[in-house]
User: Which sequence fits this backbone?
């Protein structure tokens, strides 16, 4: 059984930590982007060093008080918010944002967990390197949270998920011991891979305090295009054609539906529309190439072949970096437009690549049997990862459909699960999908997860109720 | 406490499994390539299905009998050999070698654990794809063992280690339950990543029975070159120059020393020597490029620049696939030549890339204080992974130096550890390096590993004594 934060614990923490570690528990720490949860916390601690994190964890472990690790607060599944249970310590990494070292010749950067993604990208850039993790919230998301949730984003196709961009981690385990795993090695087969266990565990097995991140050479030239496609099947064929022609140079391949552009026009009218009359389906292709290849030329060659094959009735190739940025603004603004419209139910799903057309073809009619919705389907086609979000018809609100939410979710998740897909492709489980994990997860996997959680965190202090139901 | 195989267990297994699952325990199952261990086993079981593996594990768990999972038997650290303790069941995956499915449009192949690497490579090739895992033992190593040990090899620089080439696994856990994790997804954030935990656990947390493997597009054109380099520092500079010029197209970047070529001349005289008078240091560069780039031209351009910069006094560029194969034969035959010479002590180490020249510069003099040896240093420079092997002087044998082995090993491992390196870069821990892991491993990591092992395998039946000391 966990205990709430007590005056005695606070006294102990004040004796162990400098005054600066104690911050006001502002309301922002108890909110999350989609407004589905309201948190509670007994105390906000923002340590400045790994030792201070360890001291905090040790004190909480002895007092049996829960800890909610807090990064940039951008998570979409409530992993950073504890709405019920005994009031926890909220441990924010916001003061641990040092970039400890950059090793350009090794393509490695060592960052503390509180470093903001955009700052890491900028530091890599200053060293003439690329840190390829990129997503809409990069201006506020922090490295620790990005690793704890194994964040995805737009460059996974080429560079992998957050876990693929991490060579080593330093972390504080639930007993307060410090895992010193900040190795800068490409190969290290010395025992169980705890790095990969903590990455994606959403703070339930320990708190990542620093990471050795993998940088890449910065592509010499970049370019982008928006191609209209006849439909998802054609988009997949175009993906294959793009890979065959351009190979490893394809950094992103994003699918968008006209609904997304309509939402933008409705809620963010200042954003320039790339097509006067948007097609039903389109893809955003981004390239990063070496010195010898011209991206615009590569995209023109691709368009000619795709057009001839009936895969691209229309297309726009960015003629400047400004135009490339415009294309990306469209893509990256869709989540905000969605939030302004107000989704009834959002689904971050993945299916095997070849199942995407069937999923899209079956999703719409299945939902139509439940009610009359608008669907905005967009996402990382190259990764088989779609954001399949369901909205009210114009003139109605989310509240009008609230009673249909469970049926919508079950409809989509059953379909995804039946196709061998995932009900959380990149956002994680948090608290939002604990039930879904129980419903769709492999029983042997769940049993092993519970055994590992009990072994490493027997009292259950680390992010109680996230990923796995809180015990006791 | 474990029990040896009993007649009762054998009766139970014979009732549960078909006759074909029982094979003769031939001596080959009790030997390993370097001849350091002799195994023992009570029974050899070769199941044909995952259910049969599960039935075997359940019976052994109830009887508290150890299981040694057996793949191709090519491991170099004794992970497949149990020299002491109660006689275990040896569970060979040799009859589970089906390739269950190939999905070319998804770049995925699903193979059973007993599939031989060369067969998987060939199946990928037949689908016009590449399965990039490649190492000297690929004609006998099996997928299950390659994943259990997170095998490396020559293409890690471009494509990653075995774990990076696996999207999902099916495995039998120590309680006999089946983990159904054969997902073909690029993104799946639904709970702890048990795939990465089992990969590299060397059969101590469960038995991998099948895997969804990641294929790559087959490079349109390949090429190779051997460049003489003035030394390790220049080799690193050449690696950076190669990356800057050729980018993602660099598939392998292997360092070799003249000693390796001398060993080849001495023990395998039929292998053609690429240089009449081999330089002290040389690198083998392998490229896989798209249709638009000519590998020989790219290598010639590289040579001109490298030569002008003093990084490549001499060089050979393969003028045909036959010549490329000759270069690779040289590289891939070095381990066999080493075995024929007979190493006193072999070290599969990695250090941060920028520390390689210092490691090599300091290793020789440090060893010279212990005795008079020949050193063959070669390996995967691009990964910071060297095979640093110590040999007798001509006319002497390994036995003459046996008493110096512990001092040699400590000397090298202390040096590596002090540089933030790994004492097992790609071969794993097995039984050979259990002591080393205890000596050099992070204490918090070891404690967490032991807790996880106890949680998932409380009786300790899975590969007892590998990676972690056997309990009891």
Assistant:
């Amino acid at each position: 059984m966990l205990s709430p934060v007590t005056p005695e614990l606070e006294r102990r923490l004040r004796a162990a930590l400098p005054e600066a570690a104690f911050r006001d528990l502002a309301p922002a720490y108890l909110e999350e982007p989609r407004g589905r949860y309201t948190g509670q916390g007994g105390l906000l601690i923002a340590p400045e060093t790994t030792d201070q994190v360890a001291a905090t964890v040790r004190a909480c472990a002895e007092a049996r008080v829960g800890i909610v690790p807090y990064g940039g607060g951008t998570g979409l599944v409530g992993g950073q918010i504890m709405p019920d249970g005994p009031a926890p310590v909220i441990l924010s990494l916001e003061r641990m944002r040092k970039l400890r070292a950059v090793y350009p010749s090794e393509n490695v950067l060592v960052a503390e967990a509180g470093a903001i993604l955009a700052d890491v990208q900028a530091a890599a850039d200053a060293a003439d390197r690329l840190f390829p993790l990129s997503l809409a919230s990069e201006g506020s998301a922090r490295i620790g949270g990005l690793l704890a949730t194994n964040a995805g984003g737009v460059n996974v196709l080429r560079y992998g998920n957050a876990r693929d961009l991490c060579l080593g981690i330093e972390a504080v385990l639930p007993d307060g011991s410090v895992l010193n795993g900040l190795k800068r090695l490409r190969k290290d087969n010395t025992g169980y891979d705890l790095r990969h266990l903590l990455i994606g565990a959403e703070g339930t097995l320990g708190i990542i305090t620093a990471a050795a991140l993998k940088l890449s050479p910065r592509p010499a030239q970049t370019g982008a295009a928006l191609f209209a496609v006849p439909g998802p099947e054609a988009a997949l064929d175009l993906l294959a054609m793009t890979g065959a022609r351009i190979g490893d140079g394809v950094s992103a391949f994003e699918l968008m539906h006209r609904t997304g552009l309509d939402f933008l026009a409705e809620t963010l009218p200042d954003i320039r529309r790339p097509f006067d009359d948007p097609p039903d389906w389109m893809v955003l292709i981004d390239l990063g190439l070496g010195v010898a290849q011209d991206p615009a030329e590569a995209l023109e060659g691709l368009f000619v072949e795709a057009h001839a094959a009936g895969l691209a009735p229309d297309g726009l190739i960015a003629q400047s970096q400004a135009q490339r940025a415009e294309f990306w603004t469209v893509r990256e603004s869709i989540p905000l437009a969605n939030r302004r419209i107000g989704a009834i139910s959002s689904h971050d799903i993945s299916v095997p690549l070849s199942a995407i057309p069937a999923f899209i073809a079956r999703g719409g009619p299945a939902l139509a049997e439940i009610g009359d919705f608008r669907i905005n389907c967009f996402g990382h086609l190259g990764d088989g990862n779609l954001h399949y979000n369901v909205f009210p018809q114009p003139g109605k609100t989310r509240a009008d459909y609230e009673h249909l939410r469970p049926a919508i979710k079950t409809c989509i998740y059953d379909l995804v699960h039946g196709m061998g897909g995932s009900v959380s492709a990149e956002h994680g489980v948090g608290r939002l999908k604990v039930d879904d994990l129980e419903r769709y997860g492999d029983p042997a996997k769940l049993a092993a997860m519970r055994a590992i959680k009990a072994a490493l965190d027997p009292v259950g202090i680390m992010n109680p109720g996230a990923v796995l139901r809180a015990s006791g």
